[in-house]
Amino acid sequence: MTDPLLFSLGVLAVLVVPGPTNTLLMTSGATVGVRRSLPLLLAEASGYVLGILVVSPLASVQPAGRAILGAVVGLYLLMVATRLWRHSPRSLERPVTWRSVFVTTLLNPKVLVFALLVFPMTAPHPQRYFAAFCAIVMPVGASWIAFGAFAGRLAAHRHSSLVPRVAAVVMVGMAFLLIGDSVNLYLSAS
């Protein structure tokens, strides 16, 4: 998409859809608040940019390779979900770290959508598209954090483990969808 308006709308449409990264941002907002969650926006932007730069040249990956990648992402999401589920609200450790947002975003299936359908890598000055992308990522991610902070306030202290556990269930659902899709893709490629 070389048209700046269509590019921006495409990026926005993909980013607002709930996914693993948005779930982590929301969980962080709910558990530690907006201010302490804001550094995660840099992790999100970095994960997407690096993922797009890596995936774009590999766009011709065989279906079996994509299936394996999808299964790896699904297994990683299961690991993150387990950590979220086990997190104690009384723990001083953050349930969502910079590293977990970065890796989750890097492995996010949305990276494939951006790399294969949205980003015009062959257009002149692709760095302009990356700058526009980051300018869209930040407020959308901040909205997920703010939504999480609002949900966290509603859950209050006696239900403080509710948000991470709901997030864990969502992550497990996404993981099983990815793993199931990967198995189907692998079987159809064989």
Task: List its salient traits.
single chain, 190 residues, mainly alpha, 0% strand, flat
How would you state the average pLDDT, rounded?
83
Shape: flat
Strand content: under 5%
What is the assembly state of the chains in this entry? Answer: single chain
Number of helices: 9
Contiguous low-pLDDT stretches (5 residues minimum) are none
Please give the domain count.
1
Question: What does this 3D model show about the protein?
Answer:
It is a single chain. The protein is an all-alpha fold. The protein has one domain. 77% of the residues lie in helices and 0% in strands. It contains nine helices and no strands. The chain has helices at 4-16, 20-32, 34-37, 40-55, 63-86, 98-106, 110-118, 126-155, 162-189. Helix 2 (20-32) packs across helix 8, helix 4 (40-55) packs across helix 8 (126-155) and helix 5 runs antiparallel to helix 9 (162-189). The chain starts with a helix and ends with a helix.
In short:
The protein is an all-alpha fold and 190 residues long.
SSE layout and pairing:
Blueprint: H1 4-16, H2 20-32, H3 34-37, H4 40-55, H5 63-86, H6 98-106, H7 110-118, H8 126-155, H9 162-189
Helix pairs in contact: 1-7, 1-8, 2-6, 2-8, 2-9, 4-6, 4-7, 4-8, 5-9
